[in-house]
Every structure is written in C-alpha cells, then in structure tokens.
Write a structure and sequence with these properties.
Shape: globular
CATH topology: Maf protein
Helix content: 25-40%
Number of domains: 1
Strand order of the largest sheet: 2-1-3-4-5-6
Order of helices and strands: EHEHEHEEEHH
CATH architecture: Alpha-Beta Complex
Number of strands: 6
Distance between the termini: 14 Å
Radius of gyration: 17 Å
Low-confidence stretches: none
Number of helices: 5
Oligomer: single chain
Mean pLDDT: 92
CATH class: Alpha Beta
Length: 215
C-alpha cells in the first residue's frame, strides 16, 4: 500500500542545485514546507547501490532518519543504448569532482564516435528517474519515470542542467536544454497525460499514489 502524505514539512534529499530546483518546482502546487538536505546540514550518504532505486532509497532513508521528517530523494541518469546503458547510475560521476557536465557530455560523444554511433538511429538514449519517499519510521516507496530520445551533437540550449543540452526527447524538435522548466516538466495537477521529463513522470506517480492527485 502506498504511503499517504498530507502537506507539511518535507526534505528534498539532494545537494544538486538543478535537481533540487526541479523537485521544489514540482512540489510547489501542493503546499509542502520544503527544506533541502543542504539547508539542514545533512551529509550526502555514499551512493553504494547498483540501481537507481537502491540509491534513491538510500538517500531518502538517510535524510528522513536524520531530520525526523518525510524525505523525497531522486536518483537519475542517462542510459545510452550504444554504450550498453552507460553512464547510467554513474552519470554524475562522469562529470568528475567538479561536476562539469560539459566534460561529461564530451565524454559521451567521444565514446559514441568510437563506437561508430553517428546516425540518429544509433544514438538512442533514455533518461531514468527514481523518486523514493521515506518516512522517519523507515517506511519507503519508490516511483520510476523514463523518457526516450536521441543524443545530438553539439549541445543545444542552456536551460536545465546535466545532460539536458544533448538529449532530444522523442517527438520533439528541441532538446531539454532548449526547453523552459515548465515545458520540460509538462505536468501540473489536472494535466497528467502531458508529463514529459523522466522526473515529472516519476513525480506524477508519486502525486497520484501519495497525494491522491488524479486518483
């Protein structure tokens, strides 16, 4: 049975400014008092899981236990078909200690070139997001969103963050890096069918099951 959550304090268990901004934006219509793990001085746990779900749960549980509030964590990344799913759960690590995603995008492109993946059909990729909601008592639930697309080069747009400038979602002519946050999310209460990004799709499931939106 899914956790049922009423508006009140909630911790977003992330120190990533871009990810935090997106989750706060998605939570905005629901009346939560949002705090980030960074604001509360919570340490970042080591991400020792081997799946997005394991890492999301690890982060959410750590924040809920440390803060005494419900905590929402995301683990997400880019899976490139021609690279056997890499960088996957290591998407942030490909950006190095400086979290320089220009470097990470160049690394992806270099590996695609080395693999001979130069035409659009060879450059398929998927963004995956797993949201984990944890309560202080250890109860946890997870919600998964995915969006398929193609990788372009050179990068296009300066919106969003991470690998957004090279990801062209299926059915669209602009990358995530060229879309406003509202267009990228494509979702608000009452417009569930239009959720576009992986994170918005995961959040839609969370809102339906935990907040009773669209139930």
């Amino acid at each position: 049975m899914a956790i049922k959550l009423a508006p009140g304090p909630i911790v977003v268990a992330s120190h990533n400014a871009g990810k935090l901004r997106e989750i706060v934006d998605l939570l905005a219509p629901f009346g939560f008092k949002v705090k980030s793990a960074a604001e509360l001085g919570l340490p970042e746990p080591d991400e020792t899981g081997i799946t997005f779900a394991e890492n999301a749960v690890l982060k959410a549980r750590a924040a809920a236990e440390a803060s005494g509030f419900p905590a929402l964590a995301d683990d997400s990344g880019l899976a490139v078909m021609a690279l056997n799913g890499d960088p996957g759960i290591y998407s942030a690590r490909w950006a190095g200690k400086e979290r320089d995603f220009n470097v990470a995008m160049q690394k992806v492109e270099a590996k695609l070139q080395a693999a001979g993946a130069v035409s659009a059909p060879q450059r398929g990729a998927r963004f995956v997001s797993v949201l984990a909601l944890a309560l202080p008592d250890g109860t946890v639930d997870t919600f998964t969103g995915r969006v398929d697309g193609t990788l372009v080069w050179p990068p296009r747009g300066d919106q969003g963050f991470g690998y957004d400038p090279i990801f062209l979602p299926d059915g669209h002519s602009r990358t995530f890096g060229e879309m406003s946050a509202e267009e990228k999310h494509g979702w608000r209460p009452g417009s569930e069918a239009s959720a576009l990004s992986h994170r918005a799709r995961a959040f839609r499931l969370f809102a339906r099951q935990c907040l009773g939106v669209g139930a």
